[in-house]
Each structure stands twice: as structure tokens, then as C-alpha cells.
């Protein structure tokens, strides 16, 4: 039988000593640095408290707290709510969607009522909404889990039953889905994934194909448009400019002379006329995006981050620069400021399908959805 020496020391004790000494030496050096610099202690301690609070909340919370509206009929009344995005049905006036911090809310009577006691996907933040003009009740969303930060793409064709899309190949759970856009077919969708590129599905997200990866780590993709008349024609805008594909995304050509692109707008009244909101102004193309001309420069200190266009009159455009709403009635050549929204954080500017004098805007925080019936001059609240 093997004898055990009770006085023997574990073999690993001596091996562990240098590691302990190294850690102690690092601590001593850190304290020696901080001791004569008391002004650093306050920010450091505050940072430690904040990190501890966030970690504690994430550890003990398995779903968001207080996900229901606190006032019936007011979907944004929860004090922890934010309005991330809005959308309207382009083919059915009066249908409005709110993408909030706690789910998706729908009004079918132009915001007069919001009957849902609890939003759909009430445990997710709804970051992007795309409504197909081809079929009623067909929309796609991007929802993010507030606890773990993962994004999900979900699609419905009746507004009630949803299918969660698969992740494109190579897109891991930590990759952020930036935007979803409806394609030229009922089951066709585009998704921009941050750092990964533009993906397309033709089967409601069961399978995806990568149409274009970022050209560099500095490129942020922001907007995509597919021609309804010619689905092979695509435009893709981002921080490095505009790219065009005439073969469904197989090959891309950069359009020269266009700066960073924020938004693309095309009216059904003139489908060959394309407008861009860019870093240095507004651009227009009358040849299906083969070439662009800058028709106006910046109208304020900030560029338009959103540009929307009338469905009835292709020359009527609205732009959102910061919290300022601007109108052009001559195809973007001249602009008039209509109003300044009462928020520092606008989240949306939309034009209704029934009239180009009918607008909607969203406020991120404090969360409100507002409506204008006079071209953005005056506004009234439709959801709060």
C-alpha cells in the first residue's frame, strides 16, 4: 500500500507562487499609480458601480421588466419605453406600425386607436420594419433581445402568425442586423448585417445568399432599393457612396461623384426617377440610377438622414435633417423648412400613401408618434 506523507506539500504550490507574485506586483503598481492621483478614484469607482449594476440586472433579469403599456390604448405609456422605428402600409392607408422597445404595435384606423394590450414580440426591441406593398399583412421585422443582444428576423403574411428566419451562413448570433427591406416578390426580403454585408432571401428567410460584402471595415451599409419593374436592378448606399447592380447583385459598379448615402427614395408616379439623401446634399437620377446629379446642397448643419417621396407627385419630397422637417416641391432643387420637431431624437419620418400632405414622425425619447395633415407644418400626437 502506498504511504502518504501528510507533511508533503502539493506539487503545484511552488509553480503557483510566481503567478501570485506577478498578480500582487501588478496590484501594487496600480495602487502606487492611483494613490497620488485622487482625482481618478471618483470616475473609477463610478464606473465600477455602473458595471456592477448592469451585470447584476443582466444576471437576475430573464426578460424585460414592465413590458405592458401602463395606460390602456397608449402603447408608448410605459416609462421605460422607446420608439425605435415606424412604418406605414404603402397600399392600405391608415395602417401604422410602431417598433418599440417592448414590441410591435399596430393601428388600423390612422392612429385613432391602439387596441393591443400588449405588443407582439413584447420581449424584443423592434429595430426595423418592412411592409410589402404586394400583399396585405405581409411584413418583416428585426427584433433584438434586450438581455442578450441577439437579433432575430421574423416574417408574417397575415399580421398574426410569424416565422422566424434562419441566420444567413456566416452570420453568428453576435452580428447586428441593421435593416430589413421588402423585395419585389412577396417572399423576397433584403437584410443588411453590420460588418457582413447585404443578404437576400426569396423564401421568407429559410435560405439566404450574400449579394455584397463590405468593401472595407470602414464601410457602413445603410440603404437598399430594388426596382419593382426590373428586379435585377439594385441600388446599395452607404458611407462610401452608391453602388448599382443590373444583374440581381451578381456584380456591382460604384456610381462616381456620389458621397456617403443615407437614404434612397423613388415614387411610383415616376419609377425611373431616383433621389438620394447624401452627406453633401440631394442627388437625382432620371436614367434608372446609371448616373446622378447633385440638385441641392445641405439645407442645414446636418445632412438629410431620411428622405421620403410622394406617391402621387414625384417632385414632392420631405427630408429630415436632425429634428428639422423640410419640403421640396421641385424635385429637390429648393427646400423650405416646415417645422422643428419637439425632440432631440427623431426616429422616423414617413409619408402616408393617401396624400403627400399627410406625414408621420416618431420620437425615440420621450416616445411619441405624431401626425401632420398640412405637410409638416403642424403636428398632433397619435400615440404616446
Structure write-up:
This protein is mainly beta. Among the domains are: about 80-215, Methylamine Dehydrogenase, Chain H, CATH 2.130.10; about 265-384, YVTN repeat-like/Quinoprotein amine dehydrogenase (Methylamine Dehydrogenase, Chain H), CATH 2.130.10.10. Helix content is about 10%, strand content about 35%. The protein is built from two helices and 27 strands. The strands form seven sheets. It has a four-stranded antiparallel sheet with strand order 4-5-6-7, with no helix packed on it. A four-stranded antiparallel sheet has the order 8-9-10-11, with no helix packed on it. Strand 6 (about 150-155) and strand 7 form a beta hairpin. The chain is globular, with a radius of gyration of 26 Å. The model is unreliable at about 1-25, about 35-40 and about 50-65 (pLDDT under 50).
Fraction of residues in H or I helices: 10-25%
The count of strands amounts to: 27
CATH superfamily annotation of the domain at 82-213: YVTN repeat-like/Quinoprotein amine dehydrogenase
Main beta sheet: 4 strands, antiparallel
- Rg on CA atoms, Å: 26 Å
Question: DSSP strand (E) fraction?
Answer: 35-45%
CATH class of the domain at 82-213: Mainly Beta
SSE string, helices as H and strands as E: HHEEEEEEEEEEEEEEEEEEEEEEEEEEE
Low-confidence stretches: 1-24, 37-41, 52-63
Report the end-to-end length measured between terminal Cα atoms.
80 Å
Shape verdict: globular
CATH architecture of the domain at 82-213: 7 Propeller
* CATH topology category name of the domain at 82-213: Methylamine Dehydrogenase, Chain H
Structural category: mainly beta
Amino acid at each position: 500500500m502506498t504511504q502518504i506523507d501528510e507533511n508533503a506539500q502539493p506539487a503545484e504550490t511552488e509553480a503557483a507562487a510566481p503567478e501570485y507574485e506577478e498578480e500582487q506586483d501588478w496590484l501594487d503598481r496600480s495602487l502606487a499609480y492611483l494613490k497620488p492621483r485622487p482625482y481618478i478614484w471618483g470616475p473609477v469607482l463610478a464606473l465600477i458601480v455602473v458595471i456592477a449594476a448592469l451585470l447584476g440586472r443582466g444576471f437576475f433579469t430573464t426578460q424585460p421588466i414592465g413590458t405592458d403599456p401602463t395606460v390602456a390604448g397608449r402603447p408608448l405609456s410605459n416609462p421605460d419605453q422607446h420608439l425605435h422605428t415606424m412604418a406605414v402600409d404603402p397600399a392600405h392607408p391608415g395602417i401604422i406600425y410602431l417598433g418599440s422597445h417592448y414590441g410591435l404595435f399596430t393601428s388600423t384606423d390612422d392612429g385613432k386607436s391602439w387596441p393591443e394590450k400588449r405588443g407582439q414580440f413584447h420581449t424584443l426591441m423592434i429595430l426595423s420594419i418592412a411592409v410589402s406593398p404586394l400583399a396585405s399583412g405581409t411584413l418583416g421585422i428585426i427584433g433584438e433581445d434586450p438581455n442578450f443582444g441577439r437579433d432575430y428576423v421574423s416574417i408574417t403574411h397575415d399580421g398574426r402568425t410569424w416565422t422566424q428566419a434562419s441566420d444567413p451562413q456566416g452570420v453568428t448570433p453576435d452580428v447586428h442586423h441593421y435593416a430589413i427591406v421588402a423585395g419585389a416578390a412577396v417572399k423576397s426580403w433584403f437584410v443588411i448585417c453590420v460588418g457582413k454585408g447585404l443578404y437576400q432571401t426569396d423564401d421568407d428567410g429559410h435560405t439566404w445568399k450574400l449579394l455584397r460584402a463590405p468593401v472595407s471595415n470602414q464601410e457602413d451599409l445603410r440603404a437598399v432599393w430594388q426596382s419593382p419593374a426590373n428586379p435585377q436592378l439594385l441600388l446599395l448606399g452607404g458611407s462610401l457612396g452608391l453602388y448599382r447592380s443590373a444583374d440581381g447583385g451578381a456584380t456591382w459598379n460604384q456610381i462616381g461623384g456620389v458621397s456617403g448615402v443615407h437614404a434612397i427614395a423613388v415614387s411610383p408616379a415616376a419609377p425611373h426617377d431616383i433621389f438620394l439623401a447624401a452627406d453633401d446634399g440631394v442627388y437625382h437620377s432620371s436614367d434608372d440610377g446609371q448616373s446622378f446629379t447633385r440638385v441641392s446642397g445641405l439645407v442645414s448643419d446636418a445632412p438629410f438622414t431620411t428622405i421620403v417621396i410622394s406617391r402621387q407627385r414625384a417632385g414632392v419630397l420631405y427630408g429630415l435633417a436632425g429634428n428639422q422637417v423640410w419640403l421640396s416641391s421641385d424635385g429637390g432643387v429648393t427646400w423650405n423648412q416646415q417645422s422643428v420637431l419637439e425632440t432631440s431624437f427623431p426616429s422616423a419620418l414617413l409619408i402616408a400613401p393617401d396624400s403627400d400632405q399627410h406625414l408621420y414622425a416618431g420620437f425615440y425619447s420621450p416616445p411619441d408618434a405624431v401626425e401632420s395633415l398640412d405637410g409638416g407644418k403642424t403636428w398632433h400626437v397619435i400615440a404616446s
